[in-house]
Amino acid sequence: MSLFWIVVHQLAEIEAMAASKKVITREEWEKKLKDVKIKKEDMNKLVMNFLVTEGYVDAAEKFRKESGTEPDIDLATITDRMAVKKAVQCGNVEDAIEKVNDLNPEILDTNPQLFFHLQQQRLIELIRNGKVEEALEFAQEELAPRGEENQSFLEELERTVALLAFEDVSNCPVGELLDISQRLKTASEVNAAILTSQSHEKDPKLPSLLKMLIWAQNQLDEKAAYPRINDLSTAMLEDPTV
Amino acid sequence: MPSSASASVSVSASASASASSTTTTASGAHSDLLTRLTSSEFEVQLKALRELKNRIIGNRTKKLSFIKLGLVPPVAAILESKAQAQVQAQAQAQAQARHDSNLLVQSAAALGSFACGFDAGVQAVLDAGVFPNLFLLLSHPDDKVVDAGARSLRMIYQSKLAPKCDFLQEKNMEFLLSLLNSENENVTGLGASIIIHSCESTAEQKALCHAGVVKKLISLLKGSLSQRDNSLESLATVMKNNVEAVSEFVGSESGRALSSVIGLTKDRYPRTRLLASMCLIVIRNTSACYLQDIGIKTKLVHLLLELHDDPGQVGDEAPFAFSSLISEKPDLQKLAFEANAIDKLYNHLQKSQLHPKRFQGILLALADLCSKLESCRSRFLSLQALNLVSDALTHDSSEVRTAACMCLRCVSRSIKNLCAGNFLNEMIAPPLVQLLDDPSTSVQVAAISVIGNIAVDFTMRRSLFVQCGDNVCKEGIFMEFTASSLASVICDPEPFVQEQALALIRNLVDGCIKSVELVFTEDGMILDAVRRQLQNASTDEIWIQGMYVLSNVASGTEFHKEAVMHQLIPQEDNGTQSFILKFLQSNESQLRTAAVWAIVNLTFPSCPGSFSRLVKLHSAGIVSQIKSMVNDPCPDVKLRVRTALGQFTTFGDCST
């Protein structure tokens, strides 16, 4: 996170200088930016960290060859992780559970909340496919005991089973459970758990760095007018409006 | 990444097909799984193992029902045959080796899952005799088998039921070091688990230090996330109450090891922060010379309070770590009080559906906070926290009930509130008394000690008003008891319960005549029970409390004094020595004090029967015994002996 500390440091400097709101011209700003030395390898590591965490295995492989940056995790494990994630995203939850268990049986055994969410997703898929009887039997056999163990699971289970009560699920109060976003939510929860089990950070560093950039700019806005980055996708410096 | 429409159709079809197959097997054909596990065909066996594994992972109910169906032994048998086969046959055909590896991975994973967080499962796995075979997997050529074996063993070592490893045996120590030096993360993790589970005595801690384990663990602090956590927990285990290990650690790498642990209290993972703070607490509590500056103390207090907010296991464990930080340390209790600890813990206590472990932990943390500082007790009482704690007296978990008693006991040390009668109400007294019949001994003991506190008489020499209030309080307690229930706790099989019960009675009868009379209800069965304990029990603690009961009763009316005489000097002379003589000759000064005190009360000069009692005491050899104690080494005893002798002389010298 050295980049972040550079920004904070500069901010403190500016704060010390400016009693009133100071105007910093593009020229001065760019000169300051040039003085900051960022190692190319650090930037590469940041990119690699993003690709690996998000599971872009092919891109990571290519990037490794081109930049010589070694990933901090075995790329083969990414393939397995992505297979699990994809299975959930496609609604094939049972398959995903089996894959997670093959990867590391501890994950679901020691993470009751995640296990419940996967089973809940399985129930949602049964309901989506109109398999009412199976859904009920599954809820009774697999989910109800989890609800007994944990009150908050019970409430979520009730909400899920409520789906069965509506003819038109798209218009029912718990309809969002059938949304694709629910699958994505469950998928990212599994993804994070697998990463943690591999002693890897569950979130990539890059987005939090961007969040810090925005935070730092907001802080700076109160003290100075300066060339700002408004569009993160282009990272163009825009002249201060004075 | 949304899949294409066609893909999702085919996938959901297969999902429903497998779901229906699950539901049909779930409804009955478990025996089918048993048959398949014992099949001679590799494919059938492997499929059955995987199915079993996937059914039990995350599912405690299934684990239990499969254990009951006897599915653990066949899984253990598969593992055993393949683990042994691997040792014997060097050059197996490749295909066969792959088959065996698959079976080993699946069977080890299934056994690990049976054992995961579930003592009944650990027991079943141990009963199946598969434990030593799991160790064989650690030297298997296939990494996946090693991983599976190490994971399963780690699961077993997380239970109290796992066999201890004796580090004092050289080959065990060598084996442990080989685990810690492994390249495989699961294997080093197993090494750490074995230390955490097995290292208990100082000798074991020292053996580990001498073998270089502290150094190894410090190097693991720089490893992966899980290695770091394992290392922190193992370090805490090795350093606990072991000054030598602490100074080795603190001096390591010119203090950098300690700094890195301090640094980890700011880690982004709550689990790591918790373990790092536990490690620092162990260092602090073991060696008073480290980590004493106010900065680190305040930091630990704030960190641990903040970790209570974690919804998972970390939050469940945080109160216990907090307790170990502040227990018996008024300076830290004060810091915690200033950090608003009482309010914060109270807020957690208010949440519904608290996990029993967390509930217990918070109550114990509150107990420690209120153990010494009146400011904490006042804050606690002003929040009406008492209501929540009295609810906890009837909680399903015996640990929670015990913790609630301990909390009440510490809060009821507040003399101000005790005198105001704030603890004796229908919310607290009836459930407390019921806990004396609790199936758990620790609950009984804890309950008695609270009742003892509430009944204690601080106010004898204060105003009459307070005294009346106090007696009402004591009678209130007696109303909840019957004499027979008290007599039965006095004779409880647990010595600790006996002691606490006697201490309670001692407090109940201390003071005015009216409260002494309470022990004479139901034909004096309480007094008989006390005598039985004085004659038959064999610990000083019980004798001391029992003797004080008699001493307090002997401060009552003539009738009361005679009753005590009757207990001290039995009518029929069967040659046995009176227990009071033995107590007067005891090496325990407190016991001598209590015994002399009883004699002082029995021979009080202004009482009409005192002279005749003195004569009886004389012929029992008690007077001469007291005379011989005139220069007792204990000032307390000496003082009372002299009081007694002074009283004797007012009757003239009856020894002639």
UniProtKB/TrEMBL annotation, chain A:
Q: Which InterPro entries match?
A: CRA_dom, CTLH/CRA, CTLH_C, LisH, Ubq-SigPath_Reg
Please name the PANTHER family in this protein's record: RAN BINDING PROTEIN 9-RELATED (PTHR12864)
Q: What is this protein called in UniProt?
A: CTLH domain-containing protein
Instruction: Cite a single Pfam family from the UniProt record.
Output: LisH
Q: Where is the CTLH domain?
A: 77-134
Enumerate the transmembrane spans. Answer: none
Where on the tree of life does the source sit, at the highest rank? Eukaryota
- Write down the species: Prunus armeniaca
TrEMBL record, chain B:
Q: Which UniProt keywords apply?
A: Cytoplasm, Nucleus, Repeat
Q: Which domain of life is it from?
A: Eukaryota
An example GO biological process term is: proteasome-mediated ubiquitin-dependent protein catabolic process
Q: Where in the cell is it found?
A: Cytoplasm; Nucleus
Keyword presence, Ion transport: no
User: Which Pfam families does this entry report, sorted A to Z?
Assistant: Arm (PF00514)
Q: Which GO terms describe its cellular component?
A: cytoplasm; GID complex; nucleus
* InterPro entries for this protein: ARM-like, ARM-type_fold, Armadillo, ARMC8/Vid28
Record's protein name: Armadillo repeat-containing protein 8
Q: What is the lineage of its organism?
A: Eukaryota, Viridiplantae, Streptophyta, Embryophyta, Tracheophyta
